[in-house]
Amino acid sequence: MTFQEQITQGIPSVLPQPKPYETNINHAPKRKEILSEEEKKLALRNALRYFEPKHHAELIPEFKEELEKYGRIYMYRLRPDYRMYARPISEYPGKSEQAKAIMLMIQNNLDYAVAQHPHELITYGGNGAVFSNWAQYLLTMKYLSEMTDEQTLVMYSGHPMGLFPSHKDAPRVVVTNGMMIPNYSRPDDWEKFNALGVTQYGQMTAGSYMYIGPQGIVHGTTITVLNGFRKIKKNPSGSLFVTSGLGGMSGAQPKAGTIAGCVTVCAEVNPKITKIRHEQGWIHEVVEDINELVVRVRKALENKEVVSIAYLGNIVDVWEKFDTENLHIDLGSDQTSLHNPWAGGYYPVEISFEAANEMMANNPEQFKIEVQKTLRRHAAAINKHTAKGTYFFDYGNAFLLEASRAGADVMAENPTLGREFKYPSYVQDIMGPMCFDYGFGPFRWVCCSGNPDDLAKTDKIACDVLEEMKKSSPAEIQQQMADNIQWIKGAQENKLVVGSQARILYADAEGRTKIAEAFNQAIARGEIGYVVLGRDHHDVSGTDSPYRETSNIYDGSRFTSDMAIQNVIGDSFRGATWVSIHNGGGVGWGEVVNGGFGMVLDGSKDASRRLESMLFWDVNNGISRRSWARNEGAVFAIKRAMETQPLLKVTIPNLVDDALLND
């Protein structure tokens, strides 16, 4: 069968032969056993409903074995034989160009070069899934190949509920992931209901088909690292940045450190993912001996090298060893997947990777004890360095939150609402006040042709737009404009593409709209092929997350999720091609609500109308909320937006004299 025939076939009527378990692939760890015997039968019933009854007797023992062996029913047998990657849009079968673009984006999320655990349909973060099983993937792709522009595909946590009549301006796909009743959002609830096959953790851009590989976070990390050095008034050259994690998102850290121009040490316990990042060129060197690491880092600092070094081992050993060796760390952070601490997101010190995985599956209570002991040691070592002048920030991975739950010494001496921890979130000190409040966030696009020349052309278009805008931009956003112009000029040189021909930069509503319109005009002229617009959920408006995206909201509303819900509703009727809303993201299940979108540009007047309406809302919704929280930059930004758009009228907060409150 051709690729197109396999797509339109969906779930085959004749079952393919079982596939061998490929040991050379980076697989998800075994999930802990959490289902009762009756619940295991329910999980099997739930899985078997994708198949005709004639197949049930054959599949039951196989699915039973998967559930026992891996803690989930992945349906490995149904994994396609074709190579998984983002093909040019012209290669996808279908009646809707918008639907073809979505197929392209789904396959990019599952590309072996992009996905963390591709055979388990997990893109990044240890549990950020596109689908829960391969039947869902096959059925979704079939629906997309059949869809017209008068239909909408409804996705319930990976399950394609079906195609419903709609209209051409409606989203082609509406995605929800993990939208639990609030009292059922504990980590064990995710384990249980995911094992039953009724919900999934979509992370952020994993379950919304908008992940573009580590590049998606390289830019934000580069800005964070650059501004971290600016904050401590240090030149990155000859300075040291220490962190951990080389997975889907965290793998961007060494590349960002290199672009910033410092020495980066990033620890990782998983040999497979370390090897992948080294082969991809995201890290320069791998060191396995801690004493050798000390010698290598000293030499790099003395020579002011721009180098990234992966330490294959536990980050706690690095922090402790650098303390005893009196090796000064300028910037410190952590980006292990601590939103997922008990299922492979963080590993205990002094236990091998293999032994830890075995303990995680077979003795989860002891594993939790070991993880929390490690978190206490980790925090204690960091505290020693910060006492010597290290600037440490929480990189939004729930490190401080989980460390506090473990009883680590991370709480502020005089806590205030929003400043409970002794170390700030990077959003509180850097990204929030410098970027999000002014409307700058991670705008991204994908060239549907798959042609690198198209990407180079879009880079130039975006750069030209930003340089023209900078000429008349107010002083308050000149630094943001300059950083992004520098970024886009170096994008090709830094070889950031993994998977699809994609790019990211931080832009405000004006910048996003002007860049998108310039792309649409170039498509209309036949200069480039179709373009998919999107963004990270980690943005101005898309995410309500009290310990990350909205951690610099100090009016008490950071624990509400009105903004994210309003955002996805507004995007859906203003012209998005697909929309998504998730429970759970980079900081954990039940800790965040986040949403995203995708928009296909085809060179039409309809696309111009939609992009102008939707992109303006998508940014200014968040600015208005941040303004109401009394964030100074956001008040400035929303007043400026009202000057440019007469139909925009936003309530501005009145400020209270603190002296009156203290009387």
TrEMBL record:
<dbReference type="InterPro" id="IPR035400">
    <property type="entry name" value="Urocanase_N"/>
</dbReference>
<comment type="pathway">
    <text>Amino-acid degradation; L-histidine degradation into L-glutamate; N-formimidoyl-L-glutamate from L-histidine: step 2/3.</text>
</comment>
<dbReference type="Pfam" id="PF17391">
    <property type="entry name" value="Urocanase_N"/>
</dbReference>
<dbReference type="InterPro" id="IPR036190">
    <property type="entry name" value="Urocanase_sf"/>
</dbReference>
<feature type="binding site">
    <location>
        <position position="395"/>
    </location>
    <ligand>
        <name>NAD(+)</name>
    </ligand>
</feature>
<comment type="function">
    <text>Catalyzes the conversion of urocanate to 4-imidazolone-5-propionate.</text>
</comment>
<dbReference type="Pfam" id="PF01175">
    <property type="entry name" value="Urocanase"/>
</dbReference>
<feature type="domain" description="Urocanase N-terminal">
    <location>
        <begin position="84"/>
        <end position="210"/>
    </location>
</feature>
<dbReference type="GO" id="GO:0019556">
    <property type="term" value="P:L-histidine catabolic process to glutamate and formamide"/>
</dbReference>
<dbReference type="GO" id="GO:0005737">
    <property type="term" value="C:cytoplasm"/>
</dbReference>
<dbReference type="InterPro" id="IPR055351">
    <property type="entry name" value="Urocanase"/>
</dbReference>
<dbReference type="GO" id="GO:0019557">
    <property type="term" value="P:L-histidine catabolic process to glutamate and formate"/>
</dbReference>
<feature type="binding site">
    <location>
        <position position="586"/>
    </location>
    <ligand>
        <name>NAD(+)</name>
    </ligand>
</feature>
<dbReference type="GO" id="GO:0016153">
    <property type="term" value="F:urocanate hydratase activity"/>
</dbReference>
<dbReference type="InterPro" id="IPR023636">
    <property type="entry name" value="Urocanase_CS"/>
</dbReference>
<keyword id="KW-0456">Lyase</keyword>
<dbReference type="InterPro" id="IPR035401">
    <property type="entry name" value="Urocanase_C"/>
</dbReference>
<feature type="domain" description="Urocanase C-terminal">
    <location>
        <begin position="436"/>
        <end position="639"/>
    </location>
</feature>
<feature type="binding site">
    <location>
        <position position="268"/>
    </location>
    <ligand>
        <name>NAD(+)</name>
    </ligand>
</feature>
<feature type="binding site">
    <location>
        <position position="203"/>
    </location>
    <ligand>
        <name>NAD(+)</name>
    </ligand>
</feature>
<keyword id="KW-0963">Cytoplasm</keyword>
<dbReference type="InterPro" id="IPR035085">
    <property type="entry name" value="Urocanase_Rossmann-like"/>
</dbReference>
<feature type="binding site">
    <location>
        <begin position="125"/>
        <end position="126"/>
    </location>
    <ligand>
        <name>NAD(+)</name>
    </ligand>
</feature>
<keyword id="KW-0520">NAD</keyword>
<feature type="domain" description="Urocanase Rossmann-like">
    <location>
        <begin position="213"/>
        <end position="430"/>
    </location>
</feature>
<dbReference type="Pfam" id="PF17392">
    <property type="entry name" value="Urocanase_C"/>
</dbReference>
<comment type="similarity">
    <text>Belongs to the urocanase family.</text>
</comment>
<dbReference type="InterPro" id="IPR023637">
    <property type="entry name" value="Urocanase-like"/>
</dbReference>
<keyword id="KW-0369">Histidine metabolism</keyword>
<protein>
    <recommendedName>
        <fullName>Urocanate hydratase</fullName>
        <ecNumber>4.2.1.49</ecNumber>
    </recommendedName>
</protein>
<dbReference type="InterPro" id="IPR038364">
    <property type="entry name" value="Urocanase_central_sf"/>
</dbReference>
